[in-house]
Design goal:
With 194 residues, the chain is an alpha+beta fold. The chain is built from 2 helices and 13 strands.
Amino acid sequence: MCIRDSHYHAPCSRTVFVGSPPKQMQEFAALCYEAMDAMMAIATPGHTCEELYFRFNSVLATKGFAKLSRVGYSFGVGYGPDWGEKTFSLRPGDSTVLEAGMCIHMIAGCGDAWSFQTSETVIITDGEPERLQGTARKLFVKETNQCKAEALQVEIGNELVRALSCPLGLYDVTAMNMVAAVTTQSSSVMPSPC
């Protein structure tokens, strides 16, 4: 999803699972939320981008996981189809020091037999980072046995997302320039966000 106004963006990812999510996916989602909280705890002026990356991955490592790709990047003013500023990334080797006023899209998740992703958009402040959206950070579940050719309605926060089926799973299409991945019980061939 992304809320856009006059070339200013606030990207946000949430996963919607159609059916009953496997226990392993639920556990992985909980671990990603924990890792996101650990990363946000040090998202303050003076810390570096790679410190946030290593903090996030230190939590994943407790259960044998790792996210090898970046766990966040700068965003702000952008011209479609991209909202990134391409000034820094939360990855190994990026020693950019965080300063108040920087905007970061923090990304968590991936998966092998399924796909999971969540993210937060924040502004670095002198205290805790300021979240730019209030969508609950949780695994959204849509219980249904009808995953074929019909549209499904899934409520995410205050937004109504219209999910349409396709051969590889379900992807949502909606107004207000929002796009998000949807994982189904019947499809394990999903593009990985890692």
